[in-house]
Structures are given as structure tokens and as C-alpha cells.
Design goal:
By secondary structure, this protein is an all-alpha fold. It has one domain: Cytochrome Bc1 Complex, Chain C. It is 69% helix and 2% strand. The chain contains five helices and two strands. The protein has a two-stranded antiparallel sheet. α1 runs antiparallel to α2, α2 packs across α3 and α3 packs antiparallel against α4. The longest helix has 34 residues. Bound molecules: protoporphyrin IX containing FE (2 copies). The site of one protoporphyrin IX containing FE has 20 residues, from α1, α3, α4 and α5.
Length: 177
């Protein structure tokens, strides 16, 4: 397999960095909401959760620009058409949820009248304080990170299937490593 069959190195770096970040942020989110208010570091975790979450929004835009400017390898022609379509659909669903999840968190905090941190900076506010809107985004942010996680599990199972249970030329994981 020639080098041009691989994803460009910047895209591979972005894929694994953002993937690990997202999994860490989901784990932290799940953990922190279960902590008692009396736990001293609870709101430190909130701070890091929000800051890394906002970072994901910036990385997503950078990633889409890099994708647009790079040559992305085509899926093998020998792969059944339905698998190629499903793969592409799942990738775009991942991008959509990578946007909706942090943005719903941002808008929940913003509508709740809380500052949105980016480490030691404060992000701009876009919404007036509005408890109904904050509750709506809270409901959304309580649900969609787990939908994203479900899609990631499917995506990972597909990569494993193509690597270990398909023809060697269908091993798309090699293109991302
Ligand atoms: C990729 C980015 C993000 C992911 C994957 C993510 C994921 C999660 C998850 C899994 C939870 C726990 C939900 C639950 O079980 O109730 C959570 C809670 C929370 N997230 Fe995020 N989040 C992200 C970004 C953000 C951002 C950018 C903010 C705000 C600026 C934010 C603010 C919050 C807050 C305040 C909670 C706690 C809500 C509560 O106390 O019930 N998140 N997040
Ligand atoms: C939070 C975790 C992850 C996210 C958000 C994610 C997201 C994505 C996205 C959006 C793409 C499409 C790239 C593009 O063409 O623009 C992609 C490709 C890919 N991902 Fe992931 N991914 C995650 C984790 C994983 C894991 C754990 C594996 C495997 C063990 C994996 C394997 C792959 C492979 C092999 C491709 C390339 C498929 C191809 O050649 O077309 N990903 N991923």
C-alpha cells in the first residue's frame, strides 16, 4: 500500500487526538454529574470538562479545514457499495455530533447565566439568561453525548470487522494508523 492510500498525517493526528479527548470528556461528564456537591474537586472537573469541550469545537473547525484542503483516500472499489455508503454516513454523523454535543453544553451554560471557560479565558456569551432554554439544552446535553458514544462504538466495531474479518485490502484501519 503506498503512502497516498493513507490519511494525511495531520488528519490522523487530529483523528486520534480528538477521539481520545472526546472519550475522556464523556467519562469526566458522566463521573462529575454523579458527585455530591460536597466533593471539593467537583467544580474543578466541571471547569476542565467545559474547557476541553470548547477546545473540541475549535479543533473540529480546524479539522474540517484540513480535510477540505487534503486528499482523503477513497474507500476500496471492491468494498460493497452499501458498506461504502454506510461508512460515509457514519463519518458525517460523527462530525455532526462532534459539533452538536459541545455546542449544546456551551448553550446550556450560557443560557443558565454561567461563564463558559476556555482554560483561563472566558468565551463570549450569545444568549440572555433563560431558565427554560437552559433546561432544554440540559436535557439535550444529558442525552446526545451517549448517542455519540453509541455511534463511536459502531464505528470502532466496523474498523475491527474490516481489519480482522474482511479481505486485507478492506483494512481501512491501516489508513488511519
Ligand atoms: C465534546 C464535548 C463534550 C462532551 C463529549 C460532553 C459530554 C458530557 C456528558 C457525557 C455529560 C454527563 C451527562 C449526564 O449523564 O447527565 C456532560 C455533562 C455536562 N456538560 Fe458536557 N460535554 C462536552 C462539552 C461540554 C461543554 C463545551 C460544556 C460547557 C461549556 C459542557 C457542560 C456540561 C455541564 C455543565 C454538564 C453537567 C450538567 C449537570 O450538572 O447535570 N459540556 N457532558
Ligand atoms: C471518539 C472517537 C472517534 C471519533 C469521534 C471518530 C471519528 C471519525 C471520523 C469523523 C472519521 C472520518 C474521517 C474523514 O474521512 O474525514 C473517522 C475515520 C476513521 N476512524 Fe474514527 N473516530 C473515533 C474513534 C475511532 C476508533 C476507536 C477507531 C478504531 C479502532 C477508529 C477508526 C477509524 C478509521 C479506520 C477511519 C478511516 C475509515 C476510512 O478509511 O474511511 N476511529 N473517524
Amino acid at each position: 500500500m503506498s503512502n497516498s492510500d493513507k490519511y494525511p498525517v495531520l488528519m490522523r493526528l487530529m483523528h486520534w487526538t480528538v477521539g481520545l479527548l472526546i472519550l475522556g470528556i464523556i467519562g469526566a461528564g458522566w463521573y462529575m454529574v454523579g458527585l455530591e456537591d460536597s466533593v471539593s474537586y467537583k467544580y474543578d472537573i466541571y471547569h476542565w470538562h467545559k474547557s476541553f469541550g470548547v477546545l473540541v469545537i475549535f479543533l473540529l473547525f480546524a479539522r474540517l479545514v484540513i480535510r477540505w484542503a487534503s486528499k482523503v483516500p477513497k474507500l476500496p472499489d471492491s468494498m460493497p457499495a452499501y458498506q461504502r455508503k454506510l461508512g460515509t454516513l457514519v463519518h458525517w454523523l460523527l462530525y455532526l455530533f462532534m459539533f452538536l454535543v459541545p455546542v449544546s453544553g456551551y448553550l446550556m451554560s450560557d443560557a443558565g447565566g454561567r461563564d463558559v471557560p476556555l482554560f483561563n479565558l472566558v468565551m463570549p456569551s450569545f444568549l440572555e439568561k433563560n431558565q427554560d432554554l437552559a433546561s432544554f439544552f440540559h436535557e439535550v446535553h444529558h442525552t446526545i453525548p451517549y448517542i455519540l458514544l453509541g455511534i463511536v462504538v459502531l464505528h470502532t466495531l466496523a474498523a475491527i470487522k474490516h481489519r480482522y474479518f474482511d479481505k486485507p485490502e478492506h483494512d481501512v484501519l491501516r489508513r488511519m494508523l
